[in-house]
Structures are given as structure tokens and as C-alpha cells.
Amino acid sequence: MASVILMKEKKLMDVKLGELPSWILMWDFTPKDTVEAFQRGYYRYYNNYINGEKGSIAGFNMVLGAYMLFSHCLSYKNFKHTQ
Description:
Radius of gyration: 18 Å
Shape: extended
Largest sheet: none
Mean pLDDT: 81
Strand content: under 5%
Number of strands: 0
Low-confidence stretches: none
Order of helices and strands: HHHH
């Protein structure tokens, strides 16, 4: 017999494309829950890439890449007018 998993407890990789909008609408968007979600993401990133047994430059490269992408998006208007 297949086990029944509630929609709210499914991970993103287990959600089918048609179920995605209803899965996103089940999230809580209160300030407290949003802060907790960012904390979970930070601790997951930190434990996987910074505090891991095999520390490498990969974690730093991800932060650097995200910063470069964010910086480019902010100054895109200026880049667009110079070409």
C-alpha cells in the first residue's frame, strides 16, 4: 500500500508541475515564518559548504556568483544604455 504524504510535507523535488501552485499557496508568508525559512536555508548552506568535512572553495564561489549576478541585475539599466 502506498503511503499518503500531505501536500504541505512534500519536498520541492517530489511536487509535480501541476501541483506546484497549490504547494506554494500552502506556505505561510508571515514575517516570522519567512525569517525561519531564510535561517533554515542559511544553516543548510553553511553546514553543506562551509562547515563540511571536506571544506572547499565551492561555498565561496556560490556566494561570489550570486553577488555578481545580483550586482549585474541592479546595474542592467546602465549597461543597456552604454551599448
